[in-house]
Every structure is written in C-alpha cells, then in structure tokens.
Automatic annotation (TrEMBL):
PANTHER family: 3-OXOACYL-(ACYL-CARRIER-PROTEIN) REDUCTASE, 3-OXOACYL-[ACYL-CARRIER-PROTEIN] REDUCTASE FABG. It comes from the Bacteria. Keywords: Lipid metabolism, Oxidoreductase, Steroid metabolism. Its EC number is 1.1.1.47. It comes from Inconstantimicrobium porci. Pfam families: adh_short_C2. NCBIfam families: EF_P_mod_YmfI, PRK07231.1, PRK12826.1-2. It is an enzyme of class 1 (oxidoreductase). One of its GO terms (biological process) is monocarboxylic acid metabolic process. This is Glucose 1-dehydrogenase. One of its GO terms (molecular function) is glucose 1-dehydrogenase [NAD(P)+] activity.
C-alpha cells in the first residue's frame, strides 16, 4: 500500500463509484481526505460518520462544479482551515448515453461544465497554491474513451480527451515547480455509470475485454494511490490505462 501519511488530499466526486474507492484507499494510506459531492448529501454524511468513528480524518463538501463561485468558495474554505493542499484528484464526472443529435443544450452544457470546465477552474485555484508551496500532485480521472471515442457518448468522450491533453500540457508547465500531473484512463469498471446496461449488453462488452471481466473500483483506486505517492516521484505527464487490455 502506498504511503500518503501527513498529506491533505482533495478528491472531487468522492461519494460513489471510483471516487468513493479512491477516498477509501487514500484514507487507508494515511491521507487527510476532503471530498466533494453534488447530489449525494445523505450518502456523503454517512461516509464521514462511519470513517470518523474508526479514527480517520475526512470532510465532505457539497460543490457544484458547474458554478465558478461555488468552486472558489470551496477552495477558500479549505485553504483557510488547512493551509495547504498536497494532492488534487479530479474525479467528478457525468455521462449521458444517447445519439449526439438528440442531446439538448442543457445535456451538453452539464457534461462539459462538470467534466472539463469545472475541473480546470478548481485545478487553477489549487495550482496557484501548489506553486507557492513548490510541491504538489494532481491526478485527473480520464477514460479510455478519451483516447478512442465512444459511440453514443460523443460529448463525454470529447471532455475526457480534453482532460488527457490538459494533463500532458500541465505536467510540462508545472514540472519546474516540483508539481507532478498524471491521469488514469479506466476502461469498463463496475460502477453506477454502467448500470443502465442489461445483462446481455454487459456480457457482450465483457467479451471485448481480454481479461474477460469488468474492472473493480479498488483496482483503479490502488493505481491512484500509487501515482499520488512518493513511490511515483519521477512519474509525470503520463496517462495510465486501466482497462484489462481492452484497447
């Protein structure tokens, strides 16, 4: 297990799915975790309650990544109390499955603002602090569809492709400040995001994976923990694909 002892980590979209698994893994690795959620308030409060009873240190904050001022208030609040942020994991993301021509303006705006624009705004705030600290680690959760594109998820794929290039560009820009920037590109992982598929569709998709199964959330989380730890101190600008050799 990677060692994140003494580090403060901000994780967006940490109440469920891959984000929840990353919260779990980071806490076990010794980090002080601050995670955000948008709609899952009851679930988030339960996560905090359960972990605090076990002696872990964490916070949950309701943050709408479509709202610039909300992001700024969250950042100011964290810095005023913690003083610094060592790790940022940009995990929050949404997708809407359907034909591109049927997507509404509201659908497109929500996906782009949540997956891409909000990520850039929060990263910019935190990067300014990391530059002052002369250290930091940023991990973006992209997707294999950001590399190849996915039918009926065109806007989602576009935002993830943007995140991949944002990762590589920012790593070059911030390297001289001792700030590492990497990304994970998960394949088909067992989360709520693919629960819309019926059993037959899941079997057909599973047949496309050479390992012949969907990935587990904790398998992605362990990769996240490694990339954010000192064990990966010379790893930056990389996109690690976690897809069971699907692509």
């Amino acid at each position: 297990m990677a060692d994140l002892s003494g580090k403060t980590a901000v994780i967006t979209g940490g109440s469920r799915g891959i984000g929840r698994a990353i919260v779990d893994e980071f806490l076990k690795s010794g980090a002080y975790v601050i995670f955000t959620y948008n709609n899952s308030e009851e679930q988030s409060n339960e996560i905090v309650k359960n972990y605090k009873e076990k002696g872990f240190f964490l916070e949950a904050h309701k943050v709408n990544l479509n709202d610039y001022n909300n992001i700024l208030r969250f950042y100011d609040d964290v810095i005023s109390r913690r003083g610094s942020i060592d790790i940022l994991v940009n995990n929050a993301g949404i997708s809407k499955v359907g034909l591109f021509m049927d997507m509404t303006k509201e659908d497109i705006d929500e996906i782009v603002e949540t997956n891409f624009t909000g990520t850039i705004y929060l990263t910019q705030f935190i990067v300014k602090k990391m530059v002052m600290q002369k250290k930091g680690c940023i991990l973006n959760i992209s997707s294999i569809w950001g590399n190849t594109g996915a039918s009926c998820e065109s806007v989602y794929s576009a935002t993830k492709g943007g995140i991949t290039m944002f990762t590589k560009s920012l790593a070059k820009e911030l390297g001289s400040c001792n700030i590492r920037v990497n990304a994970l590109a998960p394949g088909v992982i067992k989360t709520e995001m693919n629960e819309w598929m019926n059993d037959e569709e899941k079997r057909e998709l599973c047949d496309e994976v050479p390992l012949n199964r969907f990935g587990e959330k904790d398998e992605v989380a362990k990769c996240a923990s490694f990339l954010c730890s000192d064990d990966a101190s010379y790893v930056s600008g990389q996109v690690l694909t976690v897809d069971g050799a699907m692509l």
